[in-house]
Design brief:
single chain, about 240 residues, alpha+beta, 4 helices, 8 strands, elongated, disordered N terminus
């Protein structure tokens, strides 16, 4: 019995010795990257005059039969398309946006249906590339049978130069911010480590609604200017 106790004690002592730290050996976590940096976001914005306009022209008709509503709608839509082409709008710039046919009912004061009829809605998306003719086009489509013009939006076909200028302004703004922060924190800027950029454009849109049935001359429209912006994020090392 005593002999067995001595063996167990010996094995335990060996295990404890194996777990003990070796003299002169130290352990420490891996050093993390503690390089100091400054990150800033600069923005730049320029204004340009739009050279393209888009309008959404709607034709809504109703009849006691589906065929009657569709035939009337087709006639008005064809008249509008012909008027647009005569105004110099290319057929490729006239695109059907939506075409809907549905039944609708009128009700009396007690909520009982009094009449059922069918409604056809045909919306056409039109791109106008000759801005000087925009006002005349709006008047013509109304005279040709458009029940609604849902809105006018303006854009620039080629934004590359404006975006380039906006990015340059954004970089200058970001650099000035980085230098300001470094001076305030009493540190010295090091190398530029990274730079990322993005652009923002705000299309100018105006709601507009009018019904057909009255002869109209050109509609006064002012395109104004639209902003084109850019943002850059700069990351500098701190010496």
């Amino acid at each position: 019995m005593k002999k067995r106790q001595i063996i167990i004690f010996t094995v335990s002592a060996i295990l404890l010795a194996a777990c003990a730290p070796v003299a002169g050996r130290t352990s420490a976590p891996l050093a993390a990257d503690t390089a100091a940096t400054i990150s800033v976001t600069g923005s730049g914005q320029v204004y340009v005059v739009p050279d393209t306009a888009s309008i959404n022209v709607g034709v809504r008709t109703q009849s006691g039969t589906v065929k009657g509503a569709i035939d009337e709608n087709n006639a008005q839509a064809s008249a509008i398309k012909s008027a647009l082409v005569e105004q110099g709008v290319a057929e490729k710039d006239i695109q059907t946006a939506s075409f809907n046919v549905y039944q609708q009912s009128d009700y009396d004061f007690e909520g009982n249906p009094t009449i059922n009829y069918y409604v056809v809605e045909n919306n056409v998306y039109v791109t106008v590339r000759e801005m000087a003719s925009l006002s005349d086009i709006l008047g013509v489509v109304a005279d040709s049978g458009a029940n609604n013009i849902y809105g006018v939006s303006f854009d620039v076909q080629d934004k590359s130069e404006a975006q380039k200028t906006a990015r340059a302004l954004a970089v200058k703004t970001g650099m000035a911010q980085a230098e300001e922060l470094a001076a305030t924190a009493d540190v010295e800027l090091g190398a530029l480590l990274s730079i990322t950029s993005g652009s923002t454009t705000t299309n100018m849109s105006y709601g507009y609604g009018m019904g057909g049935g009255a002869m109209m001359e050109s509609v006064p429209i002012s395109s104004g200017q639209m902003p084109i912006g850019a943002q850059v994020t700069l990351t500098y090392a701190i010496k």
